[in-house]
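We modelled the chain as a single entity of 224 amino acids. Its sequence is:
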Amino acid sequence: MMKSHARNSQPSSSRGRLIAAVVALVAVVATVSVWLSQRNSSAEEAVSAHLPSAEAGPAAPPPSNTGAVTALDKTFLTKVRQAGLWEIPAGRLAQTHASNEAIKRAGMHLLDGHSKLDQLVREDSEALNVPIPDEATAEQQGWTNQLKKARGRAFDQLFVDLLRASHGKVFITVGEVRASTKNTLVRRLATQTNNTVQDHMDVLEDTGLVTDATLDDVASTIPK
């Protein structure tokens, strides 16, 4: 019986040694993996430390006031200022007088866009020493008075007719200024105005109320 027991213990002993060897090998592999991971991480950190960071860089400086200011540039500053002086009130009226949610949305775009442009044009006017008006034109004031008296669907159509025509006409001037101005501040303002006017034409057209007559009116002002 003792001999039989001894013979049976040999396979168990061999399996135990085998398991122990496997465990040891796994431990070694795990240790090497951790070491390699730490080494790669350190290497990546070292490389990253020498790479420029997109967030760490200084903010782009505002454009300097360089370049001559032409008569067209001065006219442009005046037009941007006067546009805000009547279109901001028009945007407010849309919130209370319109019957169409699309008109109210367009009015909010006018409020937001021209509030930002008005601040920018006043800053540029001061920097360039170019005076700008504090009142809209008599024609623009007349448009505002028309809108004050209108309600509901009548307001909706009048709002789109007046605003789409005025934006279309000034869009022509903006393009001319942006293409030809030599002054960096005016160029920045023209770029911002171009984007704002394009947005306003888009939301006005989204109302579905822009007529061919309005577009023909704009077309008639384009130099041949």
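As a brief sanity check on the tokenised model: The CA atoms of residues 113 and 195 lie 9 Å apart. Residues 1-9, 40-60 have pLDDT under 50 and may be disordered.
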